[in-house]
């Protein structure tokens, strides 16, 4: 067994019967393919949206499912990530793992490998769900047009990585289960918007406002309505509402490395 | 062979000095007691040598560096409290320990028998009493035949029966020839189990050596006479009697073991002092400890 396998199987042994992991994991797995069917209830979409088949048919189902998935990743998977770091602190099993023989690097690597695996698994699940839903909504059943825009897969993966590496960093730095969830949610919902306002003051003046970390993550898989909003004439805004996807991909990659690096630096330099 | 060499360890928590220039060498096969009052720096010392806490200065080396960064796989240790996954049972928790140590083991009956936990091996850790948790922690230190086992206050918070059970297990482990490090503030525990002792207070090492040598270096004496002042004067003139003090109407002190209590009796007789009470015994660790940490 190589080292990464050894560490991943250790994490699996620890969390396979953890109630938070099971509950949030199964909620994610169930909700993701099912929640999109709420769209079936919406018979008449406001203009310029055509009809509710855009949720299910290729290629637009990639963006709708990505948007839906971003909420679920932000919520369920990020909680799982914070839980698997902070409960090791609160149960003092982090200490015991080190005392038993793991090096600090091993412990960190085990958590990082788990987060990356979670990102890969969530992305794979996204691809499968998109393809299955799309296949059954094509007439006749087929995968025609399914891969007209493959960047969605990478965007979805980076969205997962962006949220989960942020949750990962907060877990390692904050260390308390309840407080880390509070910090995570408050940063994304309140603190970053507040800082944007404080730094930029006039929200419409400068396109760099889109490069704030969680904004960049959100813009990877935005609410697909934004592209219609782009057509609305604007007077005082001379840049896009959304970060260009390529810029967002680069920004989120950089931020993720930064989050992981900060977590590592903090974890290695402190008493545990 | 030294299993552990500690050189000049210091650690501060803000303005509080937890450890100051601690030096210690622990030989293979010894049962070492780390003795000190609460807050003396015992757990800080163990935390540092187990990789949990960062020392401000100083260094330590396990097994002469033989195992590199994975030396802790050769050590079984409990620090402060038993730490396990609360939703997992004893066997699953021990499997995780084995996995970390890189050992293939599926049967844990032997170690669980050792600590008398076999009947509850499939119950979740969170359902255990404190004594059972402590015993599982001791079982966990036995996984993978470690060369060194470390216990930090293993009888803390246990009822008398629990204490006696844990001590019995510790004695068994000590007798098996492993190197044992036992941190405790309970002298009796150290006195009964350990071969060597290091006494530590306010982060400073006060004394170290074989328990026997600390015990037998001086003989404790306790005397009473009708004329106490006369007796006191007489003993004060002797350079092989030290630490004279009056306690509950008795004159107490320590005597160089090269001399005997009958010498005192004879001298008292020669001085026309009639002794009404005369005791000489090996100094007990507790008295030594209180004296050293005074």
The tally of structural domains of chain A comes to 1
Q: Give the biggest sheet of chain A.
A: none
> Would you count the extended β strands of chain B for me?
13
Whole-number total of structural domains of chain B: 2
Helix content of chain B: 25-40%
What is the element string of chain B, with H for helices and E for strands? Answer: EEEHEEHHHEHEHEEHEHEEHEH
β content of chain A, as a range? under 5%
C-alpha end-to-end distance of chain B: 34 Å
Mass-distribution shape of chain B? elongated
The string of secondary-structure elements of chain A, in order, is HHHHHHHHHH
Contiguous runs where pLDDT drops below 50 for at least 5 residues of chain A: none
Query: Number of helical segments of chain B?
Result: 10
Mean pLDDT of chain A: 91
Rg of chain A, nearest Å: 20 Å
Radius of gyration of chain B: 23 Å
The CATH level-2 architecture of the largest domain in chain B is identified as 3-Layer(aba) Sandwich
